[in-house]
Specification:
alpha+beta, Glycosyltransferase, 3-stranded antiparallel sheet, 13-stranded antiparallel sheet, 579 residues, 22% strand
Length: 579
């Protein structure tokens, strides 16, 4: 069965764990927050005293699931058993903590199947109160201060439902294992990740000496102070509603989990659909998304991570021709991609131009400017490349507009460096030619069109006004385009499609479409309309404060990816402008 939906995430910037609505651990990333995904199945269950089968948590009734900071609580009920699970990650160690409480003494069963490939065989070993599953450079330890009374590390699936575990040896070749702990009303599991066996044993010894309540208290204090610092930075004594605060707080806490501590890169979202059955996956870093995410992070007081992104991540990822590829892992390694999108490079230059220390990155900007100039065709529009939705290869308004504005911003960064005077002159010559080309190639019937060979209405047409400043909001072409967007893309539920005839995931309203429109209306001084769109998004958060990629056109519920960094970024940007 495919695992599509993450209902909660925990982590610390080095590891990332995803849970479903019953607190089943469905994804666990190490040694980076986006790879490798090490878990196939990690299920918890209980066995009654003198019982002979396992009652798995995943079949229980969900009472409630809620956050306190980046600590997630899940309340379940099965028959006469009440279950409370508290999940979090230690801040400075690669360790997840899972505190499980029952309303009566029960034995906890842990079934763990780790992802395995022919080149990365996984084995298991049971030592003391710990189960260690391992592959080259990867050791995952499940341990507790409670005693293991049964265990099995080979052919587990045949016996685990009956709690009939049979230990034949302490070590063996298997990608799935199970352990049964002694009866108790309360048990703490620790899931520790390491690259060496000796370090795993050191983690076990460390955990033997710990008091879980003290660990919990330290983690809770850390997230409370982290949240207060960044929330106060953003709000600045301005008034926000409780529902707005819910999204702002979740954005702050989510970005902390989705930011690579070493590089400052932020994931688009924790991944789903690893087998590409519905989409191209999301657990990567796109330079385009980074333009908006980094602006939002600056508004939230996360400038240190933003500077790290441009000084470390961008330095590593920029190609010798000055361009940036479509998408990358958070550590800067190239991710699976399918073609150049020139707005990715333009977004990097525009993002740098917004920094107070933008001059520090002049070498990145200089190379990117040269790369973008070389990407213009003989008619001064973008050469064919994929559009921002990654679906069509053509010469696009959005692509060409991004070059136009990025060259202007690049000029601003480079103007104080005499050695680049020749480049400044070239930009000055090119910009009016690009502007004229945009009017010639991408205006039809006094409205903007999406591409050279495609005229369908698209929310990205607003990019000509914001963020690329090709024309002002009151330009008649922009006004006509806006009216067509309002006519063609608005759905009965009040949301907006990305573009006409969008069929992705059924063709739903996208959060970023509403917020993009809000940015236009803010530019135009129509704050009432912008506030209406912002409020619509606010009312469509999920029960934990996450914003989705889409809102289902029929059910009006959050749909597909929940916890999309781009959606959260535009919400922060728009919210700041409206308060």
């Amino acid at each position: 069965m495919e695992k599509y939906f993450n209902k909660a995430i925990i982590g610390n910037g080095n590891i990332l764990a995803c849970l479903d609505e019953k607190a089943e651990l469905i994804r666990l990333y190490y040694p980076y927050i986006d790879y490798f995904q090490n878990i196939d199945t990690y299920s918890l269950g209980f066995v009654y005293p003198n019982g002979d089968h396992v009652e798995w948590f995943k079949y229980a009734f969900l009472v409630n699931q809620y956050y306190d900071g980046n600590i997630i609580y899940t309340k379940l009920k099965m028959n006469d058993v009440d279950i409370l699970i508290r999940d979090y990650a230690l801040i400075d160690k690669n360790i997840l903590v899972r505190k499980i409480k029952f309303n009566q003494p029960l034995s906890l069963m842990v079934y763990s199947k780790v992802n395995s490939t022919p080149d990365k065989l996984v084995s298991g070993m049971c030592v003391g109160n710990s189960l260690i599953q391992y592959a080259p450079d990867f050791y995952m330890t499940t341990t507790s201060n409670h005693k293991i009374i049964k265990s099995q590390i080979n052919n587990v699936r045949d016996n685990v439902d009956r709690a009939d575990l049979k230990l034949e040896d302490y070590i063996g070749m298997s990608d799935d294992s199970a352990v049964l702990y002694e009866e108790s009303k309360e048990i703490t599991l620790y899931i520790a990740l390491e690259s060496e066996l000796k370090k795993s044993f050191a983690q076990i010894e460390f955990l033997k000496k710990q008091n879980e309540e003290e660990l919990y208290s330290d983690v809770k204090k850390y997230w409370r102070e982290f949240l207060e610092d960044h929330l106060n930075y953003y709000i600045e004594n301005k008034e926000f509603t409780n529902r707005e605060i819910d999204i702002i707080e979740r954005t702050i806490l989510m970005y902390a989990l989705l930011t690579n501590k070493s590089t400052g890169a932020v994931l688009a979202s924790p991944d789903v659909d690893e087998r590409f059955s519905k989409c191209g996956r999301y657990g990567y870093c796109w330079p385009r998304d980074a333009l908006f995410i980094n602006e939002a992070m600056m508004e939230l007081g996360m400038e240190e991570d933003v500077n790290k992104f441009y000084s470390i991540w961008a330095e590593k990822t920029q190609l010798s021709n000055g361009l940036f590829e479509q998408r990358y892992y958070s550590n800067g390694e190239l991710a699976p991609s399918w073609g150049v999108q020139i707005d990715e490079t333009a977004s990097m230059v525009i993002g740098i131009s917004k920094l107070s220390n933008k001059k520090d990155y002049f070498r990145i900007v200089e190379k990117a400017v040269v790369g973008m100039i070389n990407f213009l065709n003989e008619n001064f529009i973008s050469k064919p490349c994929y559009d921002l939705w990654e679906e069509r290869k053509d010469s696009h308004l959005y692509s060409t507009g991004s070059i136009y504005y990025a060259l202007e911003m690049g000029r601003d960064v480079l103007k104080d460096f005499p050695e680049y005077n020749h480049l400044i002159c070239e930009i000055d010559i090119l910009q009016p030619k690009i502007l004229e080309a945009i009017k010639n190639e991408f205006v039809k019937d006094n409205m903007f069109v999406r591409s050279k060979f495609n005229s369908e209405t698209d929310i990205s047409l607003l990019g000509a006004v914001t963020p690329f400043n090709v024309v002002n909001y009151d330009d008649q072409v922009a006004i006509n385009t806006l009216n067509k967007i309002e006519n063609d893309l608005k759905l009965p539920n009040g949301g907006y499609l990305r573009y006409a005839n969008d069929g992705y995931m059924g063709g739903n309203a996208w959060i970023i479409s509403s917020l993009w429109l809000a940015l236009y209306y803010i530019e135009a001084g129509n704050f009432d309309k912008a506030r209406e769109l912002y409020n619509w998004v606010t009312m469509h958060q999920d029960d934990k404060g996450f914003l989705a990629e889409q809102i289902d056109r029929n059910s009006d519920k959050p749909a597909w990816i929940v916890g999309l960094s781009w959606s959260h970024a535009l919400y922060i940007i728009v919210g700041k402008k409206l308060h």
